[in-house]
């Protein structure tokens, strides 16, 4: 791997050396900058998703020149010449800036672990040398931890068909090959037989992944771990036809130990991303949509903390449509719906940075407010919460509320992803403090 360049969401990347020391920009050498621009322009997006230009924007700033801004997606981009661009989420910490980005990476990994499709639900945080590893090296380390657990439990063997020219008869004689091989050697038998052996598809794919990662990693810790793990696969041939071997993998009760490993192996061996975006042969990207990561993280913790208090909690609820005639159209899908007896609460997560300016509606999107109003009317509830990530400008603002005057009240709550448990407990206390009486109208003026 080549040189690592680290930025955060919304940073402006430039190639103008005159502004190299300007804190408002992130300077990137012109050659690498041009490679990144080329990557953006050639990047292929799935038809169902927005083009990459939607979150990697090439712009121009007067006196500075071309700029690149990356928003709403984080991860690692590897350029065709080996240079890497690591994009980290913009996370606010109550005790100040995270200069080494160690806390940012650890928090981000916790958020990722709650995602449904992320192939690692539990990882040993203590073993990860986050300060010395980029995201790709951390993912490699996660994979190695999964392999280590497999080796401890024992790699699986299966009856595998073998062919060999033996001095004794065993299994089934392959007549054509026997004649070809043994016209002179009458004492031999060319046979096919089943042998209980670890050389099965799952193990072949794991070994192929280990060998590939051995070439890619720059981490001494990961290299050492890979060498140790390869000794457990000495009797296994590495896969050479990935597609064919993946088609043979069947995860059931007996092979459940391979579930996560096969997802990781597909990512590493076939250059799959965690998104539907994929680069060309010379460049690749492991990118995560922060809107989805944030939603998953918040929903996971709300379920864990508030679910034990009698709330029935669903995510991405599909109970209602905006229009019912002439047919059901425009499905409403609030991120989180909480129900307890006759009480319904809608919560929606937005990975957006609000601003401390009431006259500009704090930067809240008008479209988002229309969406919340529709939720309120369709679900028949006045309790709507918008959950935004906390930022430095909004740490002292926790009383933002909007009352439509006709039964819809939208409250703003700021999520501190770095202290999620205490934060959700605070949200729960606010929800509990609203002791609704059947005929009483909820409003922004209610005492807490």
Written as H for each helix and E for each strand, in order along the chain, the element string is EEEHEEEEHHEEHEHHHHEHEEEEEHEEEH
| Mean pLDDT across every amino acid position | 84
**Strand-pairing-aware structural class:** alpha+beta
Q: Quick one: how many beta strands?
A: 19
Q: Order of strands side by side in the largest beta sheet?
A: 12-15-16-17-19-18
Q: Proportion of β residues?
A: 15-25%
Question: What Rg, in angstroms, do the CA atoms define?
Answer: 28 Å
Terminal-residue CA separation: 55 Å
Based on Cα principal axes, name the global outline.
Answer: globular
Helix content: 25-40%
Our count of helices gives: 11
Largest sheet: 6 strands, mixed
The low-pLDDT segments are 44-50, 276-282
Write the layout of secondary structure elements.
Blueprint: E1 4-8, E2 12-14, E3 26-27, H1 30-42, E4 56-61, E5 65-70, E6 73-78, E7 84-88, H2 102-112, H3 135-153, E8 158-166, E9 172-173, H4 175-181, E10 189-197, H5 201-216, H6 220-230, H7 242-248, H8 259-269, E11 284-289, H9 290-306, E12 312-315, E13 320-323, E14 329-332, E15 336-340, E16 343-349, H10 366-379, E17 383-389, E18 401-403, E19 409-415, H11 420-433
Parallel strand pairs: 1-7, 2-3, 16-17, 17-19
Antiparallel strand pairs: 2-5, 4-5, 6-7, 6-11, 8-10, 9-10, 12-15, 13-14, 15-16, 18-19
Helix pairs in contact: 3-6, 5-6, 5-7, 5-8, 9-11
